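sanity check this record:

:::
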Amino acid sequence: MTVLAGLAADVQHLPGPVFHGKVSSCSGMTVEVEGLERRLAVGDACRVFARDGRPLACEVIGFSVGRAVLMPFGPLDGLGLGCRVETGGEPASFRPSLSWLGRVVDGFGRPVDGRGPLSRGDENRVLRAAPPHAYERRRIGPRLETGLRVVDTFVPLCRGQRLGVFAGSGVGKSTLLAMLARSSAADVNVIGLIGERGREVQEFIQDDLGPEGLARSVVVVATSDEPALMRRQAAWLTLGLAEYFRDQGRDVLCMMDSVTRFAMAQREIGLSAGEPPTTKGYPPTVFAELPRLLERAGPGREGTGDITGIFTVLVEGGDHDEPVADAVRGILDGHLVLTRSIAERGRYPAADVLKSVSRALPGCHSDEENLTMGRARALLARYESMEELVRLGAYKAGSDPELDLAIRANEPLESFLRQGKTETTASADAFARLQGILDGLAPEPPLPEAPVHKRLPRPAG
């Protein structure tokens, strides 16, 4: 049956009839084609042949004045009026297999790690698959061990949950993802590097992820210099691969860095297709595509695994209410905020516990764990509210017993939240350490009173 399934998948990939047209206009990032408007639909693939015969893969993004509007997956150099266009090209499906683990691929599923071709599976997978129906999905599962103290205690992550990591540039998002990929209890990691700097890809794979993390991961890469279509395609492929491993019964940790660059790519595509810009220049399709992408992660149907999603959001200018961040926060099941001010004082991960929340609480923790976490959060909040006065020396010790406890707890809690890149802590040990910090905050004994020396009476005479 496996051989027959493979043959059936091969038959589906055989090219159908080819129809030809020609380039009638080329402007900006789009190409207009005549002669194929009745043969094409939005989302279809085409090939445009440059003057030197080089084929350029394109996708239909719309129609204008009786012409098909195409957007290329590469630069438009060499294209001119009358260049030949034909239907077909890169298929909108892919055929993954378990042998893809440990490999690095581009948005089309082609290997880019120099380790030879990838073996194809026996099933065609759709790039833009629909998520399971809401009534077919299981509820989120138990807590997923991540090995990160701040996550396992204050912002817990359950199997099938979707968590956003909100931060500015250079605050440690990629390093945090690599720590999760190495130490989490998930079976498979699917990592999408969408719009990343080209030089950082090898650093992330070799230094941050390492051989141990890569061995159970598939990495999808589309760097910032690649066209918008390729960046969007890479995001779709990331979720498509996660769905494949989920359907194999695996618990998948799907990580994407970043959703903001996916939204920027969709903005370029939408504006090129003639959509009107709205808030901050984002066209309406951006806010329609975000839930379609993010809802693909989550609990699976009965008999399958789960996709636990971690999606980073690049907060522009520190504004956590900008359109993309606000839309993503409303879709996901929690958010972990990384703050530049915390990173500047050298504490990594630079998580702001008080601004972060997991919608899996309180059910994700036991009653004792919730009490421990709540007490620690209260102390952190109390210290933050009076931090300026404490640092200025305007607070007199003993005036507020609760604040005195928060001051004594601040340094141990900061040490608890600080964690090295290669350091891993089990959640049980993390809670034991946190409880130990709280147990050590007994009120300091009062200073002994100074002895009163009575004056002896002077002798008479």
Observations:
- The chain has a mean pLDDT of 88.
- Residues 133 and 301 are 9 Å apart (CA to CA).
- The radius of gyration is 28 Å.
